[in-house]
Amino acid sequence: MIHLVPAPALLYCRPMFGLFSFFGRSKEYRRLDDALSRAGLVAGGVPDAVKLTIIRLLKEEGGTGEENCARAANVLAYCLLGSSDYAAHHGAQALTALDETCQNAPKYPDSLEARVIVLTLHSGLAHEQVQERFSFETD
Question: Whole-structure pTM over 0.90, yes or no?
């Protein structure tokens, strides 16, 4: 004998059936979250749309490996925290190296760093220092 469970009972057992909560996050997503945490950001504080866009940019760049995730996470942390908070977390030497990389980003608009900077500017998440320093124009 087969017993059918009424539909309302299923809703109470699992009130929210979401794609991410059922299957879990992808490896790339978890790898980026870890890189964001190491870069000094709270991974939950970065909008999912920004993370998914960065994952897409990483795939276009050549892969979502640890090194590329770290590059993107450091640039994102610099853009969201500003130079003073980034230096407090990573040190002055790391700030100087990343600052030079970000200064060269406009010369290479297709680079990962330039695209992450543009993403933060367009999403309205960039720190005031970054907004004053970089002004990208789109055609």
Answer: no
